[in-house]
Amino acid sequence: MTDTTDAVSARRLDGNAAGGPLAALFAVDVTAARSRCAACGTTAALGEHLLYADAPAMVLRCPSCTEVVLRVGTREGYVLLDLRGATLLTVPVPVVADDGA
Amino acid sequence: MSVLSRGFGRGRSRPADDRLPPGQYDAGDAFPVLSAGPTPHTPLARWDLAVDDGTGTRARWTWEEFRALPHEALTVDLHCVTKWSKFGTRWEGVAVDRLLQDVPDPAPYVLATSDGGYTTNLPLADLTGGRAWVVDTYAGEPLAPEHGGPARLLVPHLYLWKSAKWLRRLTLRASDEPGFWETFGYHLYGDPWREQRYSGD
């Protein structure tokens, strides 16, 4: 059981706020990617996940079961990415501009 | 590129204070709440605290049983890896020595497990000898959920991520298995006076 009105919940963000750090790693906007949760199997866009940023790293959790899906942070010039709870990331193939079109 | 989470980077200059480990600042009256997930609210009727010796549960206390254990009052300084420190915090709780007293030949490491799935690893030697408590009272009041209530681990000589909020189980282990932040590159031990923030420090 979790509280939806406490200070921690009030400061919770949605996954779109993780787009900046993740843009350092991915060639596409990964907040639009759909991710399947390793714990409960729910598939949702990363931007719709729950982001806890008041921590030593950004912690992205499943919007259904709240298990950890992804952690991203930096230290000493390195980006760290943990994808422990994402069994499948699905992203559209980037559209390549065609000069002849 | 700014990828830091909000807890970091608020260091500020202050006069030297020998209570302040390297790289830390005095948070003053503030008691920042850092959280990697939703705050659990386990009803006290369903709460228990267990000690597992690695083969199974060796001791278990309901909330009423835990409250009846001998409590100690302590006043300690806190040091968070996100660089704030807080001096003179007042707690009441049960010494971990008391919780482990009936475990024969305990293994040398402990994994603390909390409601919400949080874990952290510590050497047994840092939880014993009057250096660690399971606390249920802060500043004379029941410990608030946002600070880890109903009960949290308190190991003030290590960075505060070792003082697991919402503690439910201490598991004795033969090896030092990394916990939630330790698997993300945080230091296995976490001594603020040696600034052991990350593995390799």
TrEMBL record, chain A:
<protein>
    <recommendedName>
        <fullName>MJ0042 family finger-like domain-containing protein</fullName>
    </recommendedName>
</protein>
<dbReference type="Pfam" id="PF20120">
    <property type="entry name" value="DUF6510"/>
</dbReference>
<dbReference type="InterPro" id="IPR045423">
    <property type="entry name" value="DUF6510"/>
</dbReference>
UniProtKB/TrEMBL annotation, chain B:
<feature type="region of interest" description="Disordered">
    <location>
        <begin position="1"/>
        <end position="37"/>
    </location>
</feature>
<dbReference type="InterPro" id="IPR036374">
    <property type="entry name" value="OxRdtase_Mopterin-bd_sf"/>
</dbReference>
<dbReference type="InterPro" id="IPR000572">
    <property type="entry name" value="OxRdtase_Mopterin-bd_dom"/>
</dbReference>
<dbReference type="Pfam" id="PF00174">
    <property type="entry name" value="Oxidored_molyb"/>
</dbReference>
<protein>
    <submittedName>
        <fullName>DMSO/TMAO reductase YedYZ, molybdopterin-dependent catalytic subunit</fullName>
    </submittedName>
</protein>
<feature type="domain" description="Oxidoreductase molybdopterin-binding">
    <location>
        <begin position="37"/>
        <end position="181"/>
    </location>
</feature>
